[in-house]
Amino acid sequence: MNNLRTKFQEVYFPFLIVSIITIFSYNLFRWFFDIKLGIIPLKENLLNFWIPFAIPWIPVLIWLRRRIKILNIRGKNDNGYFLYQFAMVAAIAAPIIISQNYIEKSSFELNKVSSAIEIKELKNEKYFKINSFEINQKLSQPFVTARTSGRNNESLTYYLYLTCPFENTTSVWYGVKYQKKLSNKLSEEQKESEYKKFLDQSEKEFSTYNFYEASYFEKLRYSDDLDGFVEALKNNTLNLKEKEQIVLIPKKDVFENRLGNSFSWIFKSFSIGAFILLIMILIPKINMEEYNHFKENKPLKEDDLKDLIQYLNPVGKHKTAAILILLNIIMFLIMMFMGINIISPTSTELLNIGGNRRFEILNGEYWRLFTSVFIHGGIMHLFMNLIGLGLGVSFLENIIKPFKLITTYLICGLMASLTSIYWHENIVSVGASGAIFGLYGLVLAFTVFKIYSKNTRGITWVLLSLYAGVSLLFGFFGGIDNAAHIGGLIAGFIIGILLIIIDIEKLKKNAL
Predict the structure, then answer these.
(1) Distance between CA atoms of 152 and 477, rounded to whole angstroms?
(2) Domain range holding 347?
(3) Does pTM top 0.90 for this prediction?
């Protein structure tokens, strides 16, 4: 009975309190600053899914992580405790994500207007019923793009955005979108064939499209779809004032039914998550040693979060890794605030923010050779590169001083960018992997010329085979810029040889 009371008092009830406060706080924040004031410069997919999934980690790690440790959870390398943390995050995130759909739709009423031009005066509204309107289909403007998706980019989706102007206005548009999803593992010839079929089919459907079936219209807010429609407008309009353009999407359902049962599912999802977590908390016994430490306010003996924070301290023991990792993360956050898709950005998006391509470099935009090194094609691309970066730096930071190592990283990134544009004529190249391969080039040089001890050389050969070797191998099957990888690797190897020639004894001493 005491164990049961302890679990409720120290773990479950705090979870419920933290969950309710987090859910309420984010919804209030979103409703006030985004929907009412409209001052949050983030796309809907971030506000509706990614931020709601990320936000719960903060209270879980700060207030609940220590409490979970009083449970005697079995699992290798603390995997069991992470599972409980993830379950808490999921239980909080699910109702937040579901509630975004409800908040967005319930916060706006249906506005009846006589013509589309009146919508320009209703800037803070979302839903409209236009009494009478005309559309000139012959003035439609298209834009086609593609995005990859899936864990390993195994899916490819084509998108066709078509805009048609409403009568008597040049800034209110009727938006029609077509899309087709297929396997990204198809050959280039097959993809080209599917692409042509997609365009032909979409063209046939659009030729018979009924513009007047809509029962009401939804004005697109800041999103990938809005960007797609605006790109269609930019194709045929010089000096387009993007922020003034309004794109309306036709809706065929009954306006009063737009909410569905989303409100009830907010509570249902939270109840389901809370019940599952209750069962999870009731199963293990209390770890009395950890419980006593918790009551005495003693810190954890092994704290992965504290270790990670110390590792990312730019003036700490691992300053080189911390600086390079933080630079890449900061650049990714900048991409996010600029509206770049964080899962699968298009080549156009990457090029606009600083991606590397031969045409732009030859026309004097040399800064792209450096900026592209800190830009990534999605969060998984960033995550995998940061792992490779951390591993590479760990074998070099005790041998080479931070300034030299960071300089080497930048030089290798530059050489990787140059190799990429030499080899590829019309490919947008981004990512830190070329510079990271430069670090592995250093590791290779120090391994070949026996700067490392015999035991360490055994580890470095495994590292080089698993990370560099496998990455290069997969690069030959497409989707990876092997030219940049090889260019960075060779540059790093040459720099390593030069450093060995200059002061081999000091390098060997530092490697001990």
Answers:
(1) 13
(2) 312-511
(3) no
